[in-house]
Structure formats: C-alpha cells, structure tokens
Amino acid sequence: MGWIQSNREILPFLAEMHYLRRFTGHFRGLFGDNGAGIDSTNPRILFSKLTHLDIFDEPADVVDIITALPSLTHLAFSSSNGTNWEPVTNILSNCARLTTLLLMWPPWKTKTRKAWMNETPIQDVRLVGGAYRAGSDAWLEWEEHAAGRAKDFWDRAEEFINAKMDKEIECQFYSEQPEHLF
C-alpha cells in the first residue's frame, strides 16, 4: 500500500484489509492523540498482522499505539525531530518482535542527524539511523524498490544490523562505509 494522508475517514477502508502487512502514513491522524479506538478501529485489532510500519509521527506521539501492535517487526520514523530518546527506548523495550527500528531523514540533514544518532544513550543493535539516498526521497526510493532497481531502506537497515552483529563495521548507528550508507 502506498502512502496516503491518514485520517479517521479511511479506517473503514483499512478495516477491510485483513492481511495488511505494511503501512506508511500518520498514525495520530487515524487514532487521535492516544490511539484509543473500539472494535475494528482499535490499532491492536486493525493492525494485528502489520509487520512493517513507516510513520511520519514523532515517537513520543505514538508510543502507546506502537507498543500495542503484536506482529510489528520493522518500524521507521521518517523525518523524526529526535529530541527525546525515552519513547524510542520504550518502543525497543516493549515490542518483543521488533528487529529493526529505523530513524530516517532527508540527505540534507545528514550532518546534524548523524551527530545526534551517535550521541544516543541507547545501546541496542536494532536501532539504526540513516538518510534516504542522495537525490532520493521516500517516494522515489519506494518506486525504485518496487520496480526492482534498488534496495529499499528496510533491506539496507537489515544489512547494516547484520554487519554490526558480525562485527564487520565498528560504528553503532551510522556508517561512513559506502556499502552501508543509506
């Protein structure tokens, strides 16, 4: 499913997608400030099979929703302002199946975001920071991957995590090595 502007009006449409595995959008627009809902609009029920989530909300705004998703393995926050590490820690601690937590930003923010990522108090191999490839954005990257011309950020994040675990690279969250650049 491609990106859509999220609001409560699309909940009935999403409720019919019983096998939805990937979602990109704004969660606060769907569920309000605290993620409260009933029946099929409850995030735990509606997104019970969701494995990959790329959202444009700040971690602090959606931590309760995220930690209620039972099947989530991959989570990306696109363009997070990154001012508070506590929600990220909470998500890592409370999402048992999560294998990848990716904090993404546009290439022009790389210098400041890289410094911010490398100052995190979090020591968790699942946490990765990276930029969309130079000259790219979320849309272009999705199109390139869907057409089979390039790896997407999920693929690159998994490779990066594996390289960290195999001690092929020394950095914790962001690499200068070309084969591991986002």
Would you kindly provide a written description of the structure presented here, covering whatever features stand out?
30% of the residues are buried. Helix 6 links the parallel strand 4 and strand 5. The chain has one domain: Leucine-rich repeat, LRR (right-handed beta-alpha superhelix), CATH 3.80.10. A 5-stranded parallel beta sheet has the order 1-2-3-4-5, with helices on both faces. The C terminus is likely disordered. It has 182 residues and is α/β, with parallel strands linked by helices. Helix 4 runs parallel beside helix 5.
Domains (count)? 1
Global shape: globular
Name the helicity range: 25-40%
Spans of at least 5 consecutive residues whose pLDDT stays below 50 are 34-41, 176-182
What CATH first level would be assigned?
Alpha Beta
Order of helices and strands: HEHHEHEHEHEHH
The Cα radius of gyration reads 16 Å
What name does the CATH topology carry? Leucine-rich repeat, LRR (right-handed beta-alpha superhelix)
Question: How would a crystallographer describe the biggest sheet?
Answer: 5 strands, parallel
| Structural class by sheet pairing and helices | alpha/beta
Mean pLDDT over the residues? 77
Placed side by side, the strands forming the largest sheet appear as 1-2-3-4-5
What fraction of the residues are assigned to beta strands by DSSP? Answer: 5-15%
What is the end-to-end distance? Answer: 23 Å
Total of DSSP H or I helical runs spanning 4+ residues:
8
Write down how many β-strands occur, each being a DSSP E stretch of 2 or more residues: 5
CATH architecture: Alpha-Beta Horseshoe
